[in-house]
Specification:
Elements (H helix, E strand, L loop, with lengths): L3 H26 L4 E2 L5 E2 L1 H17 L5 E3 H5 L9 E9 L1 H6 L5 E8 L2 E9 L4 E5 L3 E5 L2 E4 L10 E6 L5 H7 L4 E7 L3 H7 L5 E4 L5 H13 L3 E3 L20 E4 L8
Parallel strand pairs: 3-4, 10-11
Antiparallel strand pairs: 1-2, 4-5, 5-6, 6-7, 7-8, 8-9, 12-14, 13-14
Helix pairs in contact: 1-2, 6-7
Length: 259
């Protein structure tokens, strides 16, 4: 019998695919962005995708509150306990507007402050990453399990944000032997770690819980970890902070000692 969290990750994947199809319909015709109060962009695709996801989640898990980015931006923030869902209907809106394909649909279930099931779907390239008890990748019609890789002796491959570079991340990476650096957009950075293509992704700039949870779920299921810079667990359900994150480091495996 599949583990309950794997079953949920597959259900989330189905929902994300439906939302992704709606996003691609907007992508094909083009759209303009508006700016929210925090000056982040939002498009018609974000809103259509979120409506689809919320409707499907209400049928799938009617008793579990859903914290979704666009709803929260309009002041619709549910009360949450130890078990709730985080949704980013279009992670990487800047990538969407720049038409580089590196945008995703993110859905994750949080239980006891940790993500236990989630999916990241990149509709422009038909790549889906999901995880619960195990982790897997579906590209086109091909499905395969994924695992993080042992750290290479020659040094780590670091992932850097294309849209949000920051000096603190550079300072952190200076403490490790870095053999290669790569850029990626949205939650795909977590997926690159999960499938063994990279080793570390530091993020000291601002993020929200819905930006991170789905990728964290996939990475954790593949053998990786997301930690605070001091090595403490990275927790969810920060309601007093409006679900805003502090800095984190995503690792392919347990954090190595710096040289």
């Amino acid at each position: 019998m599949p583990h309950e969290n794997d079953v949920l990750a597959r259900e989330f994947s189905s929902i994300a695919r439906q939302a992704g199809a709606a996003i691609m319909a907007v992508y094909a015709t083009g759209t303009a962005a508006r700016f929210k109060e925090d000056r982040s962009p939002v498009t018609e695709a974000d809103e259509i995708a979120e409506a689809i996801i919320l409707d499907r989640l209400a049928a799938l898990l009617p008793d579990v509150p859903v914290v979704a980015e666009e709803s929260c931006s309009r002041g619709m923030v549910p009360q949450v306990g130890s078990r709730f869902i985080l949704v980013d209907p279009l992670d990487g809106t800047k990538e969407f507007l720049n038409r580089n394909g590196e945008f995703t649909v993110n859905i994750a279930l949080i239980d006891a402050m940790a993500p236990v099931a989630g999916c990241v779907f990149a509709p422009a390239v038909d790549a889906l990453y999901a995880g619960g008890e195990t982790a897997w990748r579906i590209i086109g019609a091909d499905e395969a399990p994924i695992r993080t890789r042992p750290y290479p002796a020659e040094g780590l491959t670091a992932l850097c944000s294309r849209s949000h570079p920051d000096a603190k991340s550079e300072a952190f990476l200076a403490g490790y032997r870095i053999a290669d650096r790569r850029e990626a957009g949205s939650s795909l950075k977590f997926c690159r770690l999960a499938e063994g293509q990279a080793d570390v992704y530091p993020r000291f700039g601002p993020t929200m819980e819905w930006d991170v949870a789905a990728g964290h779920a996939v990475l954790a299921a593949a053998g990786g970890a997301v930690l605070a810079p001091d090595g403490a667990p990275f927790a969810y359900g920060k309601t007093a902070a409006g679900f805003r994150n502090e800095a984190f480091i995503a690792w392919g495996q347990r954090a190595p000692a710096s040289p």
